[in-house]
Every structure is written in C-alpha cells, then in structure tokens.
C-alpha cells in the first residue's frame, strides 16, 4: 500500500488537514490498514519537500496546517495510478518454502503440512467474509478491500490444492540417504516483464 | 441449538466389479440448526456421496444417519420419502424450477405432494419467498423472473415449511463470483432462520461463507476449521505489521 499516493489521492479532492487525511484513509480502505497520525505527518512532510503538496503554514484554524496537492502532485498521482505494481521476480514466499522444505524432512507428511496451511488460510478467509457479510451494502471500499484479500487467499488455497494433487501423483519416494553428494547447479526461474 | 443432522460412523462401499470402492469411511458429522457447514475436498473425495446419504437419497453401508432426531434406518422407505419431502430441502446447481408453475407453486409443490392443503401450502410458500425477499414475485412464472430471483425462489423451495435441513451440491456451479456470493449470502441468511445447511463446494471463497468448513479426503473427514474468532482479529494482526 503506497501511503504517499493514497494521501495525494485524498488531497486531489481538495485541501485537507492531517487528521482528516488519517480518518479518510482508514475509512476509505475499509479500516483494514491502520495508519497513525505520525505516519501521516511524516509522509506529508516528505511530499512537501518533493513539491508534490504544499501547506498554508498553519494560518488556518488553530495552528494546524492545511495541505493541498500541487500540479506536480497531480501528475505524480496520474502516473502512479497507471504504473503496474511490481509482480516480478516472484516473491520469496514463506509458504512455498515451507512446503518445499517439508518434502525433504524425513518423517514429515507433506500432505498433512499442506492441510494445516489450507485450513489456516480458509479460517482467515472466513474472517474477511465475515467483515463483508456484516458491512453496510453501500460500503464499496470495504467490499473491494475484502475481495482483494479473499482472491489473494483463494489463490493460495488453489496452489495448495494443486501442490497436494501433484505430490500425490508422484511415486512414493524412498528416504533420502544422508550423504554429502556433490551439489547440483542451482536452477533459477526468470520471468521477464 | 438443536441438531438437524448427525452422521455417526457412516461408511459407503460400492461394488465395482472385482474391487470395492470405499466412497466414505467412518464419517462423523453433526450440523446444528442455524449453522452453515461447507464440505470441501478434491474430486472423488466423497463430497457428493456424503450429501446424498445425508439427504436419504442413498443408504450407508454402515453407520447411522439421524435427521431431526430420527435414525433413518429405523423408518420405512415410505416414511423416509416423507422425511425427504418434509424435513430436507435441496438446492441444485441449475436451480431446476418448473417452467409451467409460478414461483409460489414451485415452492409449494413438495408440500402439496405431501398432502398439505393448498391454502396452507401457499401461506408457507409466501413466507419462504418473503424470507428470500421475493414474496412480491410469488405469482410470476420462472421466465418472468431475473436470474437472481430464480436463485431466491429455488432456495425458498428448499426451506419451505418445516424443513430443518438444507443440502446444496455446488449450488453456485456456473455462476460468476458475485452471483455465487449472492447464493452463499442467501444460504447463510436461510440458516440464520433456524435451518441447518450443508453445502458441498470446491471453491474456498464460497466455503468461507460457512460457519465451519469440513475437509474430506479419500472418503474420510481429515480436518475442519475452528469457529471463526471474528473480524477484529484481522485488524489486530494489521497493527502488528
């Protein structure tokens, strides 16, 4: 989640105070990503330094600063919205590593390991679905955030299902003898943009 | 809560020529009224067999199937058929509404087949349609209803009257994800009115609408989810990031 760009987006609607930006950020992202007010002000200072926002130097109500987006900020926001997120190289996924390691640990049933993770992921999905089920019908932001997590988690379950099925197709493996064999060359997987 | 369905040590073995196929082995499952349970598992894990046995469409090779407190093995075939009409509702993948009958007639058909008088049946039918939010469409024919309304009518038919157990086999089959979600919302809503629901699905996202997810593998229950701890735990997890 890019907090600077989320703040630029909120400021593109008009000038706002820091506290209001914090509240709106949380509300608009379905209150799934907590953001403290310190983070908001640090981010605003950086955006101001880079010329993407400007403030009225506390001349508004009390001593609070009101921030507005600059033309450079508008351009930055428009560009960011259209820039694809970094999807390659594949992240070093902890779950994938655990399943790969389970294959090699003597006496470990990899299918049992897969099931433990499948259940855990579905339990997390149940909680996101509960959020969606109890949300107001017009709370689109919350539904979108919950959906994004649910689709991501569903992808993990589908990977676990596929891994489980693939491993069942393998002939059962004899225990690997513990010897210092020469290392095979490392395989790398590259995905070009 | 009262128990609507109880499977105790249920096994099902099919003769397949010289070999036997163990479709279910020693399955124990209890579903309370008001609870929605999803059954997940790969193809051939016994999901559909579990559902047909729970719905008394098939008999187990061994073990007990208890619906609304009645052990199905202790009642005659005729009484089993009566229970199927009175106590158990089914939701099919393509919803299966009869085109020549109105929405309410589709819903009340199982009641009338069972000898309920037309007036009483209609009152129950309208009540079930009302639970699903389509009571005002009662006198429309299926081809006058939208896809979403047809789904609702099909679920109303499955919960009409005194039905305590709702069984659904991949009820969202060919639907896109939002319509699939609507069906699961409706099934969940129906169980909140005191029905026990069992839904077979291979989709995790749909299963996550259930209060409990049971995992089948090679005919055995291998695992199930714990009761969800509530959404606030997600926010707490977010704080730690």
Describe this structure in words.
- With 193 residues, chain A is mainly alpha-helical.
- Helix content of chain A is 58%, strand content 5%.
- Chain A is built from 7 helices and 3 strands, in the order αβααββαααα.
- Chain A has helices spanning 3-11, 18-28, 37-49, 71-82, 94-104, 110-134, 140-169, and strands at 16-17, 53-55, 66-69.
- Chain A has a 3-stranded antiparallel β-sheet with strand order 1-3-2.
- In chain A, helix 2 crosses helix 3, helix 5 (94-104) packs antiparallel against helix 6 (110-134) and helix 6 packs antiparallel against helix 7.
- Chain A is elongated and about 70 Å long.
- The two termini of chain A are 21 Å apart.
- Chain B is α/β, with parallel strands linked by helices.
- Chain B is 35% helix and 27% strand.
- Chain B has helices at residues 47-54, 77-86, 103-113, 118-131, 147-159, 177-192, 204-207, 232-240; strands spanning 3-16, 19-32, 36-40, 62-67, 70-71, 88-91, 165-169, 196-200, 212-217, 220-224.
- In chain B, strands 6-7-8-3-9-10 form a 6-stranded mixed β-sheet, with helices on both faces. Chain B has a 4-stranded antiparallel β-sheet with strand order 2-1-4-5.
- In chain B, strand 1 (3-16) and strand 2 form a beta hairpin.
- Mean pLDDT of chain B is 88; it is low at 237-241.
- The interface between A and B is medium-sized, with 29 and 28 residues.
Give the CA-CA distance, first to last residue of chain B: 38 Å
Name the strands of the widest sheet of chain A in spatial order. 1-3-2
Termini distance of chain A? 21 Å
| Biggest beta sheet summary of chain A | 3 strands, antiparallel
Total number of β-strand segments of chain A?
Answer: 3
């Amino acid at each position: 989640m890019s907090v600077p760009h989320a703040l630029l987006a909120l400021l593109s609607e008009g000038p706002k105070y820091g506290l209001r930006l914090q509240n709106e950020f949380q509300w608009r992202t379905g209150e799934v990503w907590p953001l403290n007010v310190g983070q908001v002000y640090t981010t605003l200072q950086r955006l101001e330094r880079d010329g993407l926002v400007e403030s009225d130097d506390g001349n508004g109500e009390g001593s609070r600063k009101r921030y507005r987006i600059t033309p450079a900020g508008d351009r930055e926001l428009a560009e960011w919205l259209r820039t694809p997120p970094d999807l390659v190289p594949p992240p070093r996924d902890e779950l994938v590593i655990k399943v790969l390691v389970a294959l090699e640990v003597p006496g470990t049933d990899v299918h049992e390991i897969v099931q433990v993770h499948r259940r855990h992921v579905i339990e997390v999905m149940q909680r996101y679905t509960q959020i969606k089920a109890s949300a107001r019908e017009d709370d689109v932001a919350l539904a979108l955030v919950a959906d994004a997590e649910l689709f991501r988690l569903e992808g993990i379950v589908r990977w676990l299902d596929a891994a489980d099925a693939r491993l069942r197709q393998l002939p059962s493996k004899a225990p690997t003898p513990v010897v210092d064999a020469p290392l095979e060359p490392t395989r790398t997987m590259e995905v070009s943009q | 809560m009262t128990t609507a369905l109880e499977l105790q040590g249920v096994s099902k073995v099919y003769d397949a020529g010289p070999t036997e196929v163990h479709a279910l082995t020693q399955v124990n499952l209890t579903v309370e009224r008001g609870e929605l349970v999803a059954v997940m598992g790969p193809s051939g894990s016994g999901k559909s067999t579990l559902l047909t046995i729970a719905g008394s469409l098939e008999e187990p090779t061994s073990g007990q199937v208890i619906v609304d407190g009645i052990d199905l093995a202790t009642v005659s075939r005729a009484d089993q058929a009566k229970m199927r009409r009175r106590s158990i509702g089914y939701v099919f993948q393509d919803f299966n509404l009869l085109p020549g009958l109105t929405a309410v007639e589709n819903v009340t058909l199982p009641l009338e087949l069972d000898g309920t008088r037309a007036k009483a049946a209609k009152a129950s039918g309208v009540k079930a349609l009302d639970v699903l939010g389509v009571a005002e469409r009662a006198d429309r024919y299926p081809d006058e209803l939208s896809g979403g309304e047809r789904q609702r009518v099909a679920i109303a038919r499955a919960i009409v009257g005194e039905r305590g157990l709702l069984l659904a086999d991949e009820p969202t089959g060919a639907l896109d994800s939002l319509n699939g979600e609507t069906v699961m919302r409706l099934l969940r809503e129906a169980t909140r009115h005191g029905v026990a629901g069992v839904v077979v699905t291979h989709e995790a996202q749909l299963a996550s609408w259930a209060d409990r997810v049971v995992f089948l593998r090679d005919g055995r229950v291998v695992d199930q989810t714990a009761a969800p701890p509530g959404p606030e735990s997600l926010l707490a997890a977010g704080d730690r990031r």
